[in-house]
Design a protein that fits this description.
globular, 20 helices, alpha+beta, four-stranded antiparallel β-sheet, 4 domains, 568 residues
Length: 568
């Protein structure tokens, strides 16, 4: 009894601390990022998922009532078209539905404390999104732990929770892009699996209603999530006759009719919107985009490419795949099912026109499926723990910690889009350097400035200038200047290597290093090196200037000067 109470208390404390950590990390990440830019919570695709709420509450779907320039400010996530008198939204309303309790709570608080709402786009509404994502993440993880408890001991349950939290890109789509659909779909997948296990155990009708709702809403948010319903027929099945029993259970009139009704009710608001916007109750809003690569799927790219490849950005998934084969080898139920699902969704994603899913951190379309992929990893961990060999146990734990640290660190510094082609690892190395995971950083560019005899009449020499926006892959964060200097006299030079960052010829940052302080030998060639940091707030339209300032009007020799630009 005491053990049960301890586990319950530990469970509450664990998830409470995880929730607080998520809130702190999310607010800390977005602090100082501003609003109406690609780093803000309501922008581009995220604004498209969200705009059903302000469109309904504040503007009654009348494009003439929307604030001026709101389309540009929110990154064209939706289009209030005054010519047609319609508000065009590419995405479905599922995320808006889940966020709506937090939206209306923010609306109530804004009215209560007389806070400007800006049509649902005020700073409070931006912050509200972070709280919503954190809540659905924790709810999803709590539901998932309840399901994991049916298969694994507590230690493995909490290891798996930490792995999916810190070791996958689920973290990024909770903390950074908190209004994308993935953390909400993750919650729905966990809810579906939780309700399915309860229903299969007791066949209580209420659990079937719940799993039907979770599956229907997940399918509305992303149609490929229809795969989730296959679990009803195959989850935990050991023998073929069980599949037949599941089919009979599913098609019992009370179940099949209930599912159809719930599907209809979930899709009805979307159908009404499609009728309003496009004139038809059924409409495909993605235009020419679709699964058009069936015969030439980008499977290797989906798995391994530096352009969002799942194994490259969430390497813990490799252990999940190994776990699938282990389950099949040991004839553990669900092994074949999860492997088939993994290959099926990989093939589906690889057949999509934009197979890399645009600006993403890792392969975001896999995120909701981590609910299922965790089980093979759990069995792999259990197998290693059962061996009771500390070398194996330590090795596996260290590997998972390293994978988690890698993904966690990379996600916090990720710029949002991969700057490079499909198999160009340059952008990947830059991202590693930006995250501090590449020793010494990554060199973006090097420029050599010719040797010069510095005369007393030369106040400025050995100069070069670079426009920051010309660095296409990444903005430099560190500059290293190297040269050799020879002072033929006995007096100090008083000269300095200067790094000046200017905007419209006005310095916004000035740094310098005195040559005398880094020279050891008089009358001989001295190797000199100066390093300068470029803060993140420096704008792309600024110009970096490097030069030698002979402020004491000395005479000396300056050999070839190398100027090297690094990320980190």
């Amino acid at each position: 009894m005491n053990d049960i109470l301890f586990n319950m208390r530990f469970n509450r404390i664990f998830f409470f601390l995880l929730f607080i950590l998520t809130i702190i990390l999310s607010f800390n990440y977005h602090h100082g990022k501003g609003y109406f830019n690609h780093r803000s919570e309501i922008y581009a695709d995220k604004a498209g998922y969200y705009c059903y709420l302000p469109a309904a509450l504040f503007f009654r779907f009348d494009p003439d009532l929307f604030p001026d320039s709101i389309v540009e400010k929110t990154g064209y996530g939706f289009v209030p078209n005054t010519d047609y008198g319609k508000v065009f939204i590419k995405y479905t309303y599922g995320v808006s539905l889940l966020v709506s309790p937090f939206f209306f709570a923010t609306h109530f608080l804004s009215l209560t404390f007389d806070i400007p709402e800006e049509g649902g786009f005020s700073p409070w509404y931006h912050k509200m999104v972070n709280i919503a994502a954190a809540v659905y993440l924790i709810l999803g993880l709590m539901l998932l732990r309840h399901v994991l408890a049916l298969y694994f001991k507590p230690a493995i349950q909490y290891i798996l929770i930490l792995v999916v939290y810190l070791g996958t890109n689920l973290f990024f789509y909770t903390i950074v892009d908190s209004l994308m659909s993935h953390v909400y779909s993750f919650f729905l997948f966990a809810l579906f699996l939780f309700a399915l296990n309860r229903f299969l155990k007791k066949q209580y009708f209420g659990w079937f209603i719940l799993l039907s709702f979770a599956g229907s809403l997940a399918m509305l948010i992303r149609p490929t999530n229809v795969i989730l319903f296959s679990l009803f027929f195959f989850w935990d099945v050991r023998f073929g006759r069980e599949i037949v029993d599941r089919i009979r259970l599913f098609f019992k009139p009370i179940h099949s009719v209930s599912l159809i009704v719930i599907l209809f009710l979930v899709f009805l608001p979307q159908m009404l919107y499609w009728k309003y916007a496009w004139g038809s109750y059924f409409f495909y809003s993605y235009g020419q985009e679709g699964f058009n690569q069936w015969l030439q799927p980008y499977l290797l790219e989906v798995w391994f490419a530096p352009l969002n490849g799942v194994f490259l950005y969430s390497p813990v998934v490799i252990l999940m795949v190994i776990g699938m084969f282990y389950m099949i080898w040991k004839r553990i139920p669900n092994g074949i099912l999860i492997l088939i699902l993994f290959f099926t969704i990989s093939y589906l994603f690889a057949s999509w026109d934009t197979w890399y899913f645009g600006c993403s951190f890792g392969y975001r379309a896999f995120i909701e499926f981590y609910v299922l992929l965790l089980f093979p990893l759990g069995y792999l961990i259990r197998a290693v723990f059962d061996k009771k060999q500390w070398i194996l146990i330590t090795g596996l734990l260290v590997m998972m910690v390293l994978f988690g640290f890698y993904t966690f660190t990379l996600s916090l510094s990720y710029p949002g889009c991969y700057r490079g082609s499909t198999w160009d690892f340059t952008g990947y190395k830059i991202n590693l350097a930006r995250a501090g995971l590449l020793s010494g950083g990554y060199q973006l560019h090097q420029r050599n400035i010719n040797p010069v005899i510095v005369e007393p009449s030369n106040e400025f020499s050995a100069s070069g200038s670079w426009l920051i926006e010309d660095f296409k892959l990444a903005k430099p964060t560190r500059i290293v200047v190297e040269s050799r200097v020879k002072n033929p006299g006995d007096s100090l030079l008083g000269a300095r290597i200067v790094c000046s960052v200017e905007r419209d010829y006005v310095p916004v940052l000035y740094q310098s290093a005195g040559l005398d302080s880094i020279m050891d030998l008089k009358g001989e060639w001295n190797y000199v090196k100066a390093e300068f940091e470029i803060p993140t707030w420096i704008l792309p339209e600024c110009t970096i200037k490097i030069y030698c300032w002979n402020r004491s009007k000395s005479q000396f020799l300056l050999d070839t000067t190398r100027v090297m630009f690094y990320v980190k």
